[in-house]
Design a protein that fits this description.
Radius of gyration: 21 Å
GO biological process, one term: response to antibiotic
Protein name: Transport permease protein
Oligomer: single chain
Strand content: under 5%
InterPro entries: ABC-2_transporter, ABC2_TM, ABC2_TM_bact-type, ABC_2_transport
Shape: globular
Number of helices: 11
Pfam family, one: ABC2_membrane
Keywords: Antibiotic resistance, Cell membrane, Membrane, Transmembrane, Transmembrane helix, Transport
Length: about 260
């Protein structure tokens, strides 16, 4: 009787043909974690910033101009938004634009691995990294500085999801309009600093002059910061803030879809 032979192991090509989306996600995940700069700025820097503020005694004292909050408490939503801004504006656009500039997306259109799989993997990875950073920031703020966790969990989660989709749609629009990686980086930096201002990185929105605060609240990250503050305090986020964030998300998503080109 002849010995039974084991079936041959499936090749990498066979795996890609069978599960192209999973293979692309695995490859993009490995590439993402091989870029220590992106991992640090998206997943570690916002929490590290909050940690440093927590060790400064003056930053943990309640202040009337912040509505009775300490600087650390006021900066928790800021740090959460900062990770999203880093992911959507600084990390993702150069990668997607680079793929198109080098012809990778065009060549993939003739293979079982569709270009949409790469875009989906990039969006999913940066969204997951941003949300992980948000959870880490909340945990560090609670453990190290005694910052209260959000009192309105559902409102906080809704705001987080809207903010993540909005910033990634903005990053996708930058990728769509930028023909080269260098241009994508330049545009991202140009949008990055105003976005940080709107999110309250330079100055919490509670300390901004009234006119400036009203203008900032019409921008996506200003509206998100206010909504996160309200949810943290235990209130349902103002529907005006959620509406501004949702409107920006729809406009940016539609624009990115309209102008994105594979080559």
């Amino acid at each position: 009787m002849s010995a039974a032979t084991a079936p041959p192991a499936p090749s990498l090509t066979a795996n890609v043909r069978a599960r192209p989306g999973r293979a692309v996600l695995r490859a993009e995940t490995l590439l993402f974690f091989r870029e220590p700069g992106s991992v640090f700025w998206v997943m570690a820097f916002p929490t590290l910033l909050l940690l440093i503020l927590g060790f400064i005694p003056a930053m943990t004292e309640a202040k009337d101009e912040l509505g009775g909050l300490s600087t650390v408490e006021a900066y928790v939503p800021v740090a959460v938004l900062l990770s999203m801004i880093m992911a959507g504006l600084m990390a993702m656009p150069p990668v997607i634009t680079g793929y198109r500039e080098r012809g990778i997306l065009r060549r993939m259109s003739t293979t079982p691995v569709r270009p949409t799989s790469v875009l989906g993997a990039q969006v999913g990875l940066h969204a997951a990294a941003s949300l992980f950073s948000a959870v880490l920031t909340l945990a560090v703020g609670r453990i190290v500085s005694g910052v209260a966790l959000p009192g309105q969990i559902l409102g906080y989660l809704l705001t987080l999801l809207l903010a993540v989709v909005c910033v990634l749609a903005l990053g996708a629009l930058i990728s769509a309009l930028s023909p080269t990686t260098k241009i994508a980086q330049a545009v991202s930096i140009s949008v990055f600093f105003p976005s940080m201002l709107a999110a309250g990185v330079y100055m919490p929105i509670q300390q901004m002059p009234d006119v400036m605060a009203r203008i900032v609240e019409l921008l996506p990250f200003g509206a998100a910061a206010q909504a996160l503050n309200q949810a943290t305090a235990g209130d349902w986020p103002d529907w005006n803030h959620l509406g501004v964030l949702a409107l920006w998300t729809l406009v940016l998503s539609a624009s990115a879809t309209r102008w994105f080109r594979w080559q």
